[in-house]
Structures are given as C-alpha cells and as structure tokens.
Amino acid sequence: MSCWMPGCPALRMCRGLASLPITCLERAKDLKTRLGILLHKPELGHGIGTSSKLQLGSRQRDSSREVLEWRESFDQLLKSKSGVNAFHTFLKTEFSEENLDFWLACEDFKKTRSKTKLASKANRIFEEFVQSEAPREVNIDHETREITRKNLSGATSTCFNEAQAKTRTLMEKDSYPRFLKSASYQDMTKQASSRGTSKRSHT
C-alpha cells in the first residue's frame, strides 16, 4: 500500500530503509531468501528427525537386550560397561563398592606393560585395597592377603590373581543375586521388556 500523506507510517518506513547502507539491505534480502528456502523444505528437517529416531530406537533395542542379559550370568554383567555402572551404583547403597573397584583396578593392572609402572601400580592397589586397615579394604582372608603381599616383591601382571578371584566370587555369590532382586534392576528389566513388546507389536 502506498501513501504520500505527510506523517504516513509507510512513508517513514521507506525513508528509513532508504537511509540504510546498501550492504545492510543486501544482507537483509539474502537472509530473507535463505529463511524462505529453509521454510519451504520441511522434508529436510523431517529426514534428520527420522534418522535420529532410527538411531535412538536402535540404541534402545541394544540396551534393552543388554539389560536382560545381565541376569543370565555374572560374566554377562561384567562384560557390559553399563552393567558395571549399574552394579557399582547398587553396591554403593550397600557400602561395598570397593570390591568392584578393586576388581576393575586389577583388570586395568593386567594391561600394564611397563615393569616400572607395574611395580608402582601394584603397591598403590595393595595399599588402597588389600593391606590390613587399607582405606578401602576388601573382604579377603588373611592367607590370601599374605600371598598377595609376597607377590609384590617381584610384581607381575598376575600378582593379584588370587585376591581378585576371591573378591569376584564374593560379589557373584553375595552381591550379584541381591542386585538382580533389587528394585532398581527390576525397574530396568520391566522397561526393557516393555520396549521389546512395543517393538514386536509394531512389526
């Protein structure tokens, strides 16, 4: 709509635009064009959303299967990173997470190749978890503790094997069954099962 009356809003706007530098006007037009292209291509956004949903659905199916596998055996639980995390959270509620932390420290220790690092790591693990009155002392018998102490004199990747095995057995026979019966794991299995049922109903 055009208007040539003095004080007309449209006229004031036109004069205001005319006073702007050409580069500003060109940038505004360019921006408008780009916005128009994006607004008229809804299929672009739809494609991205669909891809994300597919990937998310795939991850959910994988995690659901994984959660249900944890109850098959303690080994299955320990093989899963998210399973170890869930078990660790449960052990914290029982104030016994040091058993799993020790087991994980031993697994990491076995991967050490440097003899110098092997010795320093061995001493650090022993002082933190194994020696009597250690800050995070694990529940092993006196004999196993002494065997481990002697192993430190010539530290090898196997020097914690016996103590690690005892701790693993303790977790498998004691903490693991309670974890499977815990409210947190029961909730996880229900969610995993419902996702599996939902998937089958849509196929």
From TrEMBL:
GO terms for molecular function: GTPase activator activity. Residues 182-203 are annotated as: Disordered. It is a lipid-anchor. Its main location: membrane. One of its GO terms (biological process) is negative regulation of signal transduction. InterPro entries: RGS, RGS_sf, RGS_subdom1/3, RGS_subdomain_2. It is found in: Membrane. Keywords: GTPase activation, Lipoprotein, Membrane, Palmitate, Phosphoprotein, Signal transduction inhibitor. Transmembrane segments: none annotated. Gene3D superfamilies: 1.10.196.10, Regulator of G-protein Signalling 4, domain 2. Signal peptide: none annotated. It comes from the Eukaryota. SMART domains: RGS (SM00315). Residues 183-196 have a biased composition (Polar residues). Residues 73-189 form the RGS domain. GO terms for cellular component: membrane. This is Regulator of G-protein signaling 16. It comes from Neopipo cinnamomea.
